[in-house]
Amino acid sequence: MAIKESSDELNPTVVIPEAVIATPRGARTAKDYLALAIATCGVGYLPLAPGTWGSLVGIGVYALVRGAAMKLMFDAGAGRNFNLLHVYYGVLAVELVAIISLTLAGIWAASRTEQLSARKDPGKVVIDEVAGQFIALMPVPYLLGTAWWSAILAFVLFRFFDIVKPYPARKLESLEAGLGIMADDIVAGVYAATVVAVAVVISWFI
């Protein structure tokens, strides 16, 4: 039998069949260390609440991507008469490319880290929380007055959905290797993003 861990603080460690996990290989390579760096994001080894730390890293990554995308679009639009709709779609396109890249890298890194650790969903893997939190933040508006509370709401909601794992998150968690590790957090991020978007729209009428 083998151990299934989780970076979600409230999800217990359980025993699963040994065949579910690939056999660890020999000496670690440069790719192994790269996978560990991506999968843990530098905070996965912290002793307490790795999932929450991963979400905080996700906020930082998202802030950097959005800031860089907005600067890019405003600079590019300076001589092209771009309006706010152009900027919005340009930023959204950059964010979508970023989250797809992050997800694909996360699937690879989480799969490799699972092999190295001989654990199903190792607790030190937090790239899934980074990606899920990124998605949850995407509906946050550009206006500071709305952005601060909607960003906090996105963080709280993602942590909630990541722990509760509403359908189909719990089912997708059983997928093979890194795909299963990433999939449930992607779903949690989508749920959180949907609620945040609805809350922002409702705030316009209050």
Describe this structure in words.
By secondary structure, the chain is mostly helical. Helix content is 66%, strand content 4%. The chain contains 7 helices and 3 strands. The protein has helices at 30-40, 50-77, 84-117, 127-137, 144-164, 169-172, 177-203, and strands at 2-4, 14-16, 119-120. The protein has a 3-stranded mixed β-sheet with strand order 2-1-3. Helix 2 (50-77) crosses helix 4 and helix 3 (84-117) runs antiparallel to helix 4 (127-137). The model has no long low-confidence stretch (mean pLDDT 89).
Order of helices and strands: EEHHHEHHHH
- In terms of structural class, how would the helical and strand content be classed? mainly alpha
Numbering strands along the chain, what is their spatial order in the largest sheet?
2-1-3
- List the uncertain runs: none
Mean pLDDT: 89
- Beta-strand percentage? under 5%
